[in-house]
Design brief:
The complex is a heterodimer of chains A (291) and B (269).
Chain A (H helix, E strand, L loop, with lengths): L1 H14 L3 E5 L8 H6 L4 E3 L4 H13 L3 E7 L8 H9 L5 E6 L17 H5 L6 E3 L4 H13 L4 E5 L20 E4 L6 E5 L3 H10 L6 E5 L2 E2 L7 H5 L4 E9 L4 H8 L8 E7 L10 H8 L2
Parallel strand pairs in A: 1-2, 1-3, 3-4, 4-6, 5-6, 8-9, 8-11, 11-12
Antiparallel strand pairs in A: 5-10, 7-9
Helix pairs in contact in A: 1-6, 3-4
Chain B lengths: L2 H19 L4 H18 L14 E4 L5 H11 L38 H14 L6 E6 L6 H12 L5 E7 L8 H5 L4 H7 L3 E6 L3 H8 L8 E6 L22 H17 L1
Parallel strand pairs in B: 1-2, 2-3, 3-5, 4-5
The chains are: A alpha/beta (291), B alpha/beta (269).
């Protein structure tokens, strides 16, 4: 997913001269091709995320589409106010790229686990969360974000995520992307982010018979309005995310249906509090947390 | 309008706005009236008829709580009707009590401190990338220098040789509860800023010629910081150097006294 991001960004930067990449002293083995190809549009802001984020807002205010790249909590919680006041409030085209969603950096410990980032980003009114499910969705999301500049949060897996799709799908904010299933099904799993492959494995094991599988890679506060219509045809929906259950994607989804008119039964699969502070491989922690 | 007249208008309008809205921060606004007047009357390439013109110089007010002074300056030079200043602080007014980018001529909304300099550095970097001749100016408070984000930005701007960036620190030596010295001392400020590889100059922040000269003293390859020595509440005898006027607003009687003081100090200047 990380490599798909960089390769797509390189291709887009060739035709979009306003694309700028700023990194917070992270990205070894990933960002070098961009730095080599576009040295005048690549900056390492150092280990200083607060400045990095306001700096990106300044660049964006002058016409750049800025990609601010770092790991998990550093470009989010570390500089939450800079994102809120400078990027989101001013509605500027800064894409915060957070590498290592969920417990992708499992062995690096809690400081590197992105367990509450959706919770932070989804309360910002202009922020579009882009949580692709596989490398193909990563390319699709990036193309969408470039074509529709604004505040956005691109949450990537670390590397090696399996391809669920076989081509770049069409993605649109708030719209479920069908991955597999039958038209007549009345049950669905809706995932966001790299949980897509996990949910696919659930289906393969027969855990959710009769469920269709959807990915929702683009969502946020302004996309709640599109959920009621899509849920209409289902009696049961299970949301899935590699984020803590509190205030995450599943919470957002239930809030989107909060008027109570929907008879759909919604349940959620997310990481439980068991994972807080635990160290282990991503698969180990996902299993511990209930995914 | 010359800079002295503009400074006088900024002070008068600021006092009236704060009085009418029963708002805070008049001391901080009076502190920067002369700096704003010099910028808008003498320094900035800025056309009030086209406040978003691509070739304008950019000005960022980082100490957003002093916005009445900027609103007054922008109205007086013609960005929007002076009459609109009456709406300051009223329900749904675009003239909100911390500086708002919804006001013509305002580049950036601030209020939380420590955001203006990093943002201005981003603008300056964009200007460098695009090889643009315009300059970026940012006005900071001294208490604001407590914020770590400013020191991150100081390092970044110097590292990238942003000589199209000028920071002005309104060094009035008072914070919201006490003096700067008693809160988090900044000294030796000049040496600290020089050690961060900026070109540093000090000036009397109420002397228009000295300010103009200092702001124009940049060096190629180095961002410039002007330490402007100012007096909080400048021009109103009972407000000068008084922490009280960080938050308090004048009642009718004190407003009259303040306006007379301002007029008197202008005659003496």
């Amino acid at each position: 997913m990380r490599d798909a991001f960089l390769n797509e960004l390189l291709a887009l930067a060739e035709v979009q001269p306003n694309v700028v990449l700023v990194v917070g002293d992270l990205g070894f083995g990933v960002v070098e091709p961009f730095a080599d190809r576009f040295p005048e549009r690549f900056f390492n802001a150092g280990v200083a995320e607060q400045n990095m984020m306001s700096l990106c807002a300044g660049l964006a205010s002058e016409g750049c589409h800025v990609f601010a790249y770092s790991i998990a909590n550093f470009p989010t919680f570390r500089c939450a106010e800079q994102i809120r006041n400078d990027v989101d409030y001013h509605n500027l085209p800064v894409t915060i790229v957070s590498v290592g969603g969920g417990v992708a950096y499992g062995n690096l410990g809690y400081s590197h686990h992105a367990l509450q980032d959706y919770a932070l980003m989804r309360v910002l009114p202009n922020m579009l969360i882009a949580a692709p499910g596989d490398p193909w969705e990563t390319r699709a999301c990036l193309r969408y974000l470039i074509d529709n500049p604004g505040p956005s949060y691109l949450r990537l897996g670390k590397s090696g995520e399996a391809s669920v799709h076989s081509h770049v799908p069409e993605v649109s904010p708030g719209q479920w992307l069908k991955v597999q299933g039958q038209p007549e099904s009345t049950s669905a799993i809706v995932t966001t982010g790299a949980t897509l492959a996990i949910a696919q494995a659930w289906l393969a094991r027969g855990e959710y018979p009769e469920h269709n599988l959807y990915s929702l890679p683009l969502w946020g506060m302004r996309q709640k309005q599109y959920q009621a219509a899509q849920v209409e045809q289902f009696q049961r929906v299970v949301t899935a995310e590699d984020h803590i259950a509190d205030a995450g994607f599943g919470s957002w989804f239930r809030e989107a249906l909060h008027d109570g008119r929907s008879s759909c039964e919604v349940s959620s699969r997310a990481l439980s509090a068991e994972v807080f502070g635990k160290v282990g491989a991503q698969s180990t922690l996902n299993a511990l947390g209930g995914l | 309008m010359n800079s002295q007249s503009l400074a006088l208008s900024v002070r008068e309008q600021s006092l009236r706005m704060v009085h009418r809205a029963r708002a805070s921060h008049i001391g901080s606004a009076l502190s920067i009236a002369d700096i704003l007047a010099v910028l808008y009357a003498r320094v900035l390439r800025f056309d009030p008829a086209q406040p978003a013109a691509p070739d304008r110089d950019r000005f960022v007010l980082s100490k957003g709580h002093a916005c009445v002074a900027l609103y007054a300056a922008l109205a007086e030079i013609g960005c929007f009707p002076v009459k609109e200043l009456d709406e300051y602080g009223q329900d749904f007014s675009r003239l909100m009590n911390h500086v708002s980018h919804h006001v013509p001529g305002v580049e950036f909304s601030t209020g939380s401190l420590g955001h203006g300099l990093p943002f201005a550095a981003g603008k300056a970097l964009a200007g460098k990338i695009a090889k643009q001749p315009w300059q970026v100016f940012v006005l900071l408070s001294d208490g604001e220098m407590d914020e770590g984000s400013n020191w991150e930005a100081l390092m970044f701007a110097a590292h990238h040789g942003l000589d199209n960036l000028t920071a002005i620190i309104d060094y009035n030596k008072l914070q919201s509860l006490d003096t700067v010295d008693n809160t988090l001392g900044l000294e030796p400020l000049r040496e600290k800023l020089a050690a961060f590889n900026w070109s540093v100059v000090e000036a009397d922040g109420h002397d228009h010629d000295a300010l103009e000269s200092a702001i124009g003293s940049g060096s190629p390859g180095l961002p410039l910081v002007v330490i402007a020595h100012t007096v909080k509440g400048k021009g109103v005898s009972f407000m000068e150097n008084e922490v009280l006027w960080h938050y308090r607003n004048p009642d009718d009687g004190l407003l009259d006294r303040a306006l007379k003081d301002i007029a008197g100090s202008q005659r003496d200047a």
